[in-house]
Amino acid sequence: MVFLRSKAPFEMSRNKAHGSQAAERLTAAGHPCIHNRMTNSNAVRFSLFLLLFGYCAGFAGENFAADKLRISYSAVNATQAFLWVAQEKGIFAKHGLEGELLYINSGTMNIAALVGGSVQIAGGGPVSIEARLRGIKLTILGNPLPWLASNLVVHPDIKAIPDLAGKLAGISRFGSSTDQGFRYLFRKNGLNVDRDLKMLQMGGDSSRVAALKAGTIQYTFLGAAATDNARALGFRVLATAQQMAIPFPWTSVVVEESWLNKNRELAYRYMKCGTEAIVTLKRNRADSERIIGKYMKITDPKLMATEFDFVASLMPDYIAPTLDGIKVILENFGKEYPDAPKRDPKEFVDSSIIERLKNERFVEGLKS
Questions:
Q1: Which of 14, 27, 106, 339 has its CA 20 to 30 A from that of 155?
Q2: Of 285, 264, 247, 283, nearest to 363 (Cα)?
């Protein structure tokens, strides 16, 4: 596998002073986020990560109010819409929380922010799994979107998945869901990941569409609205998320295990918010499309409807961790961590909160 680096920017709202806690904690355990087979030195990879991205721990020194949560998400598309609905419809406040949403443009950087103390709840399921393989105790509480939730968009000359071999893929960041998705796709279709998969990190959907247009990359994963934009430019969808049907921790609720042990009731209230937001999203199409349009900064009703249809068909009411999806990621890591495929996916999750909600028939109460 060849990893090529672009100059795609790191985006995070409300950046503050640089923090040192991320560096200290990651140094002790090894850096979980970036893969680069051009070097075998974990120390070098870690140092590069800190130099480039370590400032994501901007809030590390602050104390959090008991009912306040800083929550990060990794994409500006409707896969994250349950968070926007929770904010806009007052669901956080209903359950006694003050939720502050922060967009950070990859799962890799979301997990760096979580480890650094910038946020208390983060996206970035695949990266959190690698972090735990390296000894950093992160836990997945749920997967609001338990499928590989992007369409495979390609240059028109590409007719089948074997044609991807040797061509450049656009991903958000190394270690992210897009990275892990391509690893699985290549393995599943008999391609050699080390030889055939070449990836260039480009940032979010809009950056990857621009890279397709410029010819920098030949294929990528895209959300629904970005897929329509790419189609309009002459690119084609080789496979939809529904057609691929790959179990995957695409959108995740990740916390530090130590934080969870001290704040289990707070985590419970957050999971109630996420669950209620998904039910609300699916029950109130017009309002949900308006909210999607607001956060994605799109005004075309067709694009808003496309995004809504895409996620509403993939999001379950109860956002339980996807053990099948986590198994996919562990198998992906088989070369870097030889024991990973043998590890039990249950080790990487805490399902107790979502099981509590099921036992309480929380969703059924919302729908009555």
A1: 106
A2: 283
